[in-house]
Design a protein that fits this description.
Layout (H helix, E strand, L loop, with lengths): L12 E6 L6 H10 L3 E5 L5 H18 L4 E5 L14 E4 L4 E5 L9 E3 L3 H6 L5 E4 L4 E8 L3 E8 L1 E4 L4 E2 L12 H12 L4 E4 L5 H11 L4 E6 L2 H5 L1 H7 L2 E5 H7 L5 H15 L3 E4 L14 H12 L4 E4 L1 H4 L4 H16 L4 H5 L10 H16 L1 E7 L4 H8 L6 E5 L2 H6 L6 E5 L6 H15 L7 E7 L8 E8 L15
Parallel strand pairs: 1-2, 1-16, 2-3, 3-12, 5-6, 12-13, 13-14, 14-15, 15-16, 17-18, 17-20, 18-19
Antiparallel strand pairs: 4-10, 5-9, 7-8, 7-11, 8-9, 20-21
Helix pairs in contact: 1-12, 5-7, 7-9, 10-12
Length: about 500
C-alpha cells in the first residue's frame, strides 16, 4: 500500500478531470497512483447520480490510502446557443447579411432564432459574434430589442443549437444559472473542496457565488471572458484561486493573445498568493494517442516554469483512450522540468514581495534561510491553510510539509504549489509541536537523521493567522524511537 504521507517528489499539482473513461473506482485508483493530486468533476456532463458515485469512489480511496484528495466541482455557467434550422443546418456565406432574432420559428440561410434576450440589449454596432467555437464570425451592423442584423465576415456550415460567444461586450447575465444553483447545492452537500465558477465577467459574479457557498468550499474563478481580464485584480481579491481557462478564452480572443494573458494571470495570482490552475488542451492529442506532441509537452513545461500551482487534464483523462498514461506523462514532464538546471531562476523571474505582516515576513524569511542552513524541508502547522499559502507564494527551494488537524484544510491544499498536506492531531504547546514536526519530517521521508528542517507556526496554537514563530532544528533520528502512531481519527 502507498505510504500515507509519501510526497510526490514534485511541486506542481496535477488536476485530472473524471468522466466516462475514468470514474470507476479502479481507474480512480490508477490515476492517484500515476500522480493525480486532485480531481475535477465537470457538472456540464453527466447526472447527479454519476457524480455522486464518482465522489464516493474518490473518498473511499482517500480513506484507504490515507492521502487527502482534492475534489473540484466545475459549474457549467450560461451556455449561449443559437436556435434550430428548418433543415437542421445551413451555410453562412461570407459577405451576406444574417439576422438573429427572437422569432422562435426555424431558421434558414438568412436568419435564426437567438433565445437569449439579454444579448439584444447589450450589443452595439461593430461588435463581433462568434459561432461554433469561433469558426464563424459575424459583425453587428444594426440591433434593437428584437433583431440583430449582422454581416458574415467568416462563413461556413452552421447546424442547430451551436454555441455563441460575445467577446466585445459584457453580457448582462448572471454567472450562475438555475442549473448551476442546483449543481452547487449538490456539490456542497457531497463535500467537494473547491467550486469552479464559469462565465465570470465582473467581481459581482464572484461575490454572489461566494455568498451561496457560505464557506463550505473554496472558490476558484475561471478566467475565460475578455471582460474578466479588465477587472482581474478585483476578481482575484474575491476568489480563493483562479483558472486560466484557455478554451473559451482562445475562442473570444485571437490565439496569439492567449499566451501573454496566461502569463499575466499566473503572475497576478502568484503576487496575491492565490493558487492558479492552467487548463485546456494541455495534452490534447493523448485523447486518442498514447504519447503527446512535443509542442504539448512544451506547453505543459511553460506553465510549470511560470510557477503555476496546478496543471489540468480535461478530455484527456475524462473521455480519452489513455487516462492513466496522460496523468503519468504530466507527472514525468513536471519531474523533468523541476529537475532542470534553469528551473529555479525561471520560477523566480516573477518576484513576490511579502505583505507587511509578521506572518508574511516569517514565511519569506523561512524560504530565504533554506540555502543558508541547507534545510531539507519547511514544515508549517496550520488550521486554515493560510500559513502554507504564504510559504508557497515564495516558491521555496525545499519541499513544504503542511501539518493540519483539519481534514477540510488538507483537502483544499491539494491545489497549492509544493504543499504536501498531512492531517494530524492538534497540538497545544510549543514542545508538542516541535516533537510532532520532527517525527513527521522523518516519517514523510523529506528529511533524515542529521538534516536540518525549518518549522513555522503561530503561538498560541489554534489562533488562525497568528504565524509568529520560526524554528530551525537538526534531526537526530531518535524522534521515532518508542513512538507509536495514534490510530487514525
Amino acid at each position: 500500500m502507498t505510504n500515507q504521507i509519501a510526497p510526490r517528489g514534485r511541486k506542481v499539482r496535477i488536476l485530472a478531470t473524471l468522466g466516462p473513461a475514468s470514474r470507476t473506482p479502479e481507474m480512480v485508483r490508477k490515476l492517484v497512483l500515476a500522480g493525480a493530486d486532485a480531481f475535477r468533476v465537470n457538472m456540464s456532463h453527466g447526472a447527479h447520480a454519476d457524480h455522486a458515485a464518482t465522489i464516493q469512489a474518490i473518498r473511499a480511496l482517500e480513506k484507504e490510502l490515507g492521502r487527502p484528495t482534492t475534489i473540484l466541482a466545475d459549474l457549467q455557467g450560461p451556455k449561449l446557443r443559437v436556435g434550430a434550422f428548418a433543415d437542421g443546418r445551413t451555410t453562412l456565406v461570407t459577405g451576406n447579411l444574417f439576422v438573429l432574432d427572437r422569432d422562435p420559428a426555424p431558421g434558414g440561410e438568412h436568419r435564426v432564432n437567438l433565445p437569449h434576450k439579454e444579448i439584444f440589449a447589450a450589443l452595439r454596432p461593430g461588435a463581433r459574434l462568434l459561432l461554433d467555437d469561433g469558426k464563424l464570425v459575424l459583425r453587428v451592423e444594426e440591433c434593437d430589442a428584437d433583431r440583430i442584423a449582422t454581416r458574415v465576415e467568416v462563413g461556413g456550415p452552421l447546424s442547430n443549437n451551436k454555441g455563441l460567444n460575445v467577446p466585445d461586450v459584457i453580457v448582462p447575465m448572471a454567472a450562475l444559472t438555475d442549473k448551476d444553483r442546483a449543481d452547487l447545492t449538490f456539490a456542497l452537500d457531497h463535500g467537494v473542496d473547491w467550486v469552479a465558477l464559469s462565465f465570470v465577467q465582473r467581481p459581482d459574479d464572484v461575490a454572489e457565488a461566494r455568498r451561496l457557498i457560505g464557506g463550505k468550499a473554496a472558490l476558484l474563478s475561471k478566467i475565460e471572458k475578455p471582460a474578466a481580464i479588465d477587472r482581474l485584480d478585483e476578481i482575484l481579491e474575491l476568489s480563493d484561486g483562479v483558472m486560466v481557462a484557455r478554451g473559451d478564452l482562445g475562442v473570444e480572443l485571437p490565439p496569439e493573445a492567449v499566451p501573454p494573458l496566461q502569463k499575466r494571470i499566473v503572475e497576478t495570482a502568484r503576487h496575491m498568493g492565490k493558487p492558479v490552475v492552467v487548463a485546456t488542451q494541455m495534452l490534447e492529442s493523448m485523447i486518442v494517442a498514447p504519447t503527446p506532441t512535443r509542442a504539448e509537452v512544451s506547453d505543459v513545461a511553460t506553465a510549470i516554469y511560470d510557477g503555476a500551482d496546478a496543471v489540468m487534464l480535461s478530455a484527456e483523462s475524462a473521455a480519452g483512450a489513455w487516462p492513466e498514461e496522460s496523468v503519468a506523462m504530466m507527472h514525468r514532464i513536471a519531474l523533468s522540468v523541476e529537475g532542470s538546471a534553469g528551473y529555479s531562476a525561471r520560477l523566480h523571474f516573477t518576484e513576490t514581495e511579502p505583505d507587511r505582516t509578521t506572518a508574511d515576513a516569517i514565511a519569506a524569511a523561512a524560504c530565504r534561510m533554506i540555502d543558508t542552513v541547507d534545510a531539507k524541508c519547511v514544515i508549517c502547522f496550520t488550521s486554515t491553510g493560510s500559513t502554507a499559502r504564504r510559504v508557497a507564494r515564495e516558491r521555496p527551494g525545499a519541499p513544504l510539509l503542511v501539518l493540519t488537524p483539519r481534514l477540510l484544510t488538507a483537502r483544499r491544499l491539494g491545489l497549492l504549489w509544493g504543499g504536501h498536506a498531512v492531517r494530524t492531531r492538534d497540538v497545544h504547546s510549543f514542545e508538542e509541536w516541535v516533537a510532532k514536526a520532527r517525527r513527521m519530517a522523518l516519517r514523510s521521508g523529506l528529511a533524515k537523521a542529521g538534516d536540518r528542517v525549518i518549522m513555522i507556526a503561530g503561538v498560541p496554537f489554534g489562533t488562525p493567522g497568528s504565524t509568529n514563530v520560526l524554528h530551525v532544528v537538526r534531526l537526530t533520528g531518535d524522534e521515532l524511537k518508542g513512538y507509536a502512531a495514534p490510530a487514525k481519527a
